[in-house]
Every structure is written in structure tokens, then in C-alpha cells.
């Protein structure tokens, strides 16, 4: 079933006017979504940048400490004399272990801790990790976030997240040692906060500026869409009015000209038939009577055509009378038509809604005659609570709703959909191959 009307999305002209409120809400929601996405991405990016910057700062500071405080105090004796080692490294610790440095370690190349401000680690041997080996091999500073799960970091696990930096140093004899310093991660968090504050200010101001720039543009586009829609509706209405005027002109010309002349001709031929009877020429009289009957039949067909071209005025004939006249024209052309109209239900409709119901009913009846190849058609108007329902059905061939014939947007379907939308009615079409077609229009009662 295809439905057009409230709660449905019509495929024909007559869409609801563009709502400025809906457009504004959509723009605001889109801006909020963009803000959320950018804020999340910005937060991740800011933290990564801050972490890299913090690691870089720690690496620079460790390099300075190693160059100015550690390397000058190293002697060859620290490798073999515990007392010399303790004196040298204690002075180093007093100079180096200050905020934000929390711990230092000096390693031998074989992984033994030569000295640390944590005495429990002195003399213990651990496997050097990849960063430590890289610093020794390349002779460069290597920094990274500490992996507190490694055995040598067991005493740092209570200190929270840390940065560790390796920097090679050498004794006067050229023996390579590894200087390791641990830094509090608070510096990274502080840098991240600073970056985020700066980024969020730029972000919010950019979005606000974008919204301010978009608002007049969206407003202009919506107004243009409304004007275009109004022009389209006016053109459709003008086309319908011109069509009605032209039909009226043609109907008037036929009624006042050809129909009247044929009617007069039928009277003349009938009179000639009577005269032939009086002259005693029954054969000629019968021929004239047959001719008069044919002319009257033609006049009847023309009158039915006039009803199609220019239906009765709804204000004078009423909805029921106008639809009955259309059905009478179908009857005259041999189609079996059944009509049931609830006059009380029709009286509940305004003139505008009666006109819309007439247009839909007229088009549905035309469709049944011209395209459905139907032998019988029914039309009913009934009242249902706060609705008045028009239903037109036929026993014709029907169509496949999903097929290309049905999807082709014909003028008749556009006309019915437009009339339904104009008065806020719901239009439904039910059809299937070999099962005929039923068109239903539910119009709100006034």
C-alpha cells in the first residue's frame, strides 16, 4: 500500500513547507556533534603532543644533568672501589635528585646497578630493556614512559606514572655507564591541560564564528526554498485553473453549439419520420426514426463528455451530486458503477475539503475507466469518527506497486497527492496485479 498524507512521506508534489525551526535545530545539533567529535579528537591529540613534549623536556634536562653534574664527577675508581663510588654518587644524588626528578640509577653495561639513590638496588643485576641498550649502542639520550611492571621498577610503582630517560656517560678511561633519571608525569598532565585550554578556546571561537556565518546563509536558503515551493504550488494551481477554464470554454462551445444543433437535428428527423408515416412510407419512416435515435444517443454521449470536461459546480450541485454526475457519465459508456454517499458525513466537510475530495474521486474514476480495464466500479463516502472517507475501487487489472509502471509518477497520481496534501488528508492506494485497485482518501472533518 502506498500512503500519502500526515505521517507519510509523499513522492508527489505538495511536500510540507520547509520549517525554519527544524533547520535551525538540525544546524545546532550538527554543530554540537562536530564540537563533541573535535573536542574528543583535540583532547587525544593534545595529550599525545603534551606527552611528546614532556618526554622531550625530560630528555633535554637529563642530558644537561649528565653533562654538568654526572660526567664531571665520574672516576675510574667508582668501578672497583665502593667507598669512592659512594662518595662520588652521593654528591651526584644531592645535585640531581630534585623536583621533578624522583630517582636516579647508574648502570653498568652488563645490567648491574652500580649505584642508585635507592640503596636496595645497588649491586643487583637486571636485563637491560630495549631503550637502555639503544642508548648505550647509539650514544644518545632515549626517553619513554616508564614500564613499572619491570622488576627494576618495583620500588617506583607507588609513585604513579613516571618518565624515564637514559643517557650514556663514560669514565675517564672510556668505560661506558648508563645514567637513568625518573621524572614525575605531572609535568606532562600540566602541559596537556595548557595545550587543551588553548586548543579549546580556538575551537569554541571557530565554531561560534562558523555558526554566525552559517546562520544568514541557512536563513537565506530556507527562504529561497520556501519561495520556490510557493512558486511551484502557484504554478500547479494556475495550471489547474487554466485547465478548468479551458475545459469550461470547450464545454460551453460544445453545449451551445454542437449539442444544441444535434438535438435540434434529432427533432427534425423525428418530425420527418412522422411525415413519412402519414405519407404511407413505413420503410422511410423507420430509417428516419433510427437516425433520430442515433443522433439522440450521440447527444447523450456528448453530454456525458461535458460532465467530464466541466463537472457541475460544487456549490450548486453539492459533492454527492457532482460525483453522481461523473458516475452517470461512466454508466452511459457501459461501466457498471455503484455509488453510496453519506450526506451527513459530506455536510461535515468545508467547501475546500469537498472540492479536494471531488478532485480525487473524479481522478480515481477516470483511472478506473481509462487504465484499469474494469467492468465494475464502486464509490462510497462514509463518516469515521473525526474523518470523512472517500473510497473508489475497481475490479480491473491492477498494477505491481513495486514495478516500474507504478513508480512512474503520472499526472493523475500527482494531482491526487497534491489535493490530499493541500487539505491535510491521507491518501492510500492498494493494488496488486489482477486484484484491481482501491483508492482511499481520509479527510479530517471540520
Order of helices and strands: EHHEEHEEEHHHEHHEEHHEE
Mean pLDDT: 79
What is the 3D form?
Answer: rod-shaped
Major sheet characteristics: 6 strands, mixed
Helix content: 55-70%
User: Can you tell me the residue ranges where pLDDT is under 50 for at least 5 consecutive residues?
Assistant: 1-15, 404-409
Proportion in β-strands? 15-25%
Structure description:
This protein is α+β, with helices and mostly antiparallel strands. It is 57% helix and 17% strand. Helix 1 runs antiparallel to helix 4. Residues 1-15 and 404-409 have low confidence and may be disordered.
Describe this structure in a few short sentences:
The protein has 446 residues and is of the alpha+beta class. It has helices at 20-70, 82-96, 130-138, 186-278, 282-309, 314-332, 343-347, 351-370, 404-407, 411-422; strands at residues 2-4, 101-108, 113-116, 142-145, 162-170, 176-184, 336-341, 376-384, 387-394, 426-431, 437-444.
Task: Give short descriptive properties of this protein.
single chain; 446 residues; 11 strands; rod-shaped; six-stranded mixed beta sheet; alpha+beta
Please give the structural blueprint.
Elements: E1 2-4, H1 20-70, H2 82-96, E2 101-108, E3 113-116, H3 130-138, E4 142-145, E5 162-170, E6 176-184, H4 186-278, H5 282-309, H6 314-332, E7 336-341, H7 343-347, H8 351-370, E8 376-384, E9 387-394, H9 404-407, H10 411-422, E10 426-431, E11 437-444
Parallel strand pairs: 7-8
Antiparallel strand pairs: 1-10, 2-3, 2-6, 4-5, 5-6, 8-9, 9-11, 10-11
Amino acid at each position: 500500500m502506498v500512503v500519502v498524507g500526515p505521517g507519510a512521506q509523499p513522492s508527489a508534489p505538495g511536500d510540507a513547507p520547509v520549517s525554519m525551526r527544524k533547520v535551525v535545530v538540525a544546524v545546532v545539533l550538527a554543530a554540537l556533534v562536530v564540537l563533541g567529535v573535535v573536542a574528543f579528537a583535540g583532547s587525544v591529540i593534545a595529550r599525545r603532543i603534551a606527552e611528546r613534549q614532556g618526554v622531550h623536556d625530560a630528555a633535554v634536562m637529563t642530558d644537561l644533568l649528565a653533562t654538568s653534574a654526572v660526567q664531571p664527577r665520574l672516576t675510574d675508581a667508582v668501578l672497583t672501589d665502593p667507598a669512592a663510588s659512594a662518595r662520588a654518587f652521593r654528591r651526584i644524588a644531592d645535585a640531581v635528585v630534585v623536583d621533578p626528578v624522583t630517582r636516579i640509577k647508574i648502570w653498568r653495561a652488563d645490567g648491574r646497578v652500580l649505584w642508585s639513590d635507592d640503596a636496595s638496588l645497588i649491586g643487583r643485576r637486571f636485563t637491560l630493556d630495549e631503550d637502555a641498550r639503544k642508548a648505550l649502542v647509539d650514544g644518545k639520550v632515549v626517553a619513554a614512559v616508564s614500564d613499572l611492571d619491570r622488576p627494576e621498577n618495583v620500588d617506583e610503582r607507588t609513585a604513579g606514572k613516571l618518565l624515564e630517560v637514559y643517557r650514556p656517560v663514560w669514565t675517564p678511561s672510556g668505560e661506558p655507564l648508563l645514567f637513568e633519571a625518573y621524572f614525575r608525569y605531572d609535568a606532562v598532565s600540566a602541559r596537556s591541560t595548557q595545550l587543551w585550554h588553548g586548543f579549546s578556546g580556538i575551537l569554541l571561537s571557530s565554531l561560534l564564528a562558523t555558526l554566525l556565518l552559517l546562520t544568514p546563509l541557512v536563513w537565506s536558503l530556507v527562504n529561497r526554498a520556501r519561495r520556490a515551493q510557493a512558486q511551484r504550488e502557484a504554478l500547479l494551481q494556475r495550471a489547474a485553473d487554466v485547465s478548468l477554464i479551458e475545459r469550461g470554454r470547450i464545454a460551453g462551445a460544445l453545449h451551445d453549439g454542437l449539442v444544441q444543433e444535434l438535438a435540434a437535428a434529432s427533432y427534425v428527423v423525428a418530425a420527418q419520420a412522422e411525415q413519412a408515416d402519414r405519407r404511407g412510407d413505413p420503410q422511410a419512416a423507420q430509417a428516419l426514426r433510427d437516425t433520430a435515435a442515433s443522433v439522440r444517443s450521440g447527444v447523450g454521449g456528448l453530454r456525458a463528455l461535458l460532465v467530464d470536461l466541466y463537472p457541475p459546480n460544487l456549490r450548486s450541485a453539492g459533492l454527492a451530486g457532482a460525483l453522481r454526475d461523473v458516475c452517470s457519465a461512466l454508466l452511459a459508456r457501459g461501466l457498471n458503477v455503484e455509488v453510496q454517499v453519506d450526506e451527513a458525513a459530506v455536510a461535515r466537510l468545508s467547501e475546500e475539503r469537498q472540492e479536494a475530495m471531488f478532485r480525487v474521486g473524479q481522478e480515481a474514476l477516470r483511472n478506473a475507466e481509462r487504465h484499469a480495464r474494469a467492468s465494475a466500479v464502486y464509490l462510497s463516502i462514509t463518516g469515521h469518527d473525526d474523518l470523512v472517507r472517500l473510497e473508489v475501487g475497481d475490479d480491473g487489472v491492477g498494477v505491481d506497486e513495486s514495478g516500474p509502471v507504478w513508480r512512474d509518477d503520472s499526472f493523475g497520481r500527482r494531482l491526487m497527492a497534491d489535493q490530499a496534501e493541500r487539505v491535510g488528508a491521507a491518501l492510500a492506494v492498494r493494488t496488486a496485479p489482477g486484484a484491481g485497485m482501491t483508492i482511499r482518501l481520509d479527510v479530517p472533518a471540520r
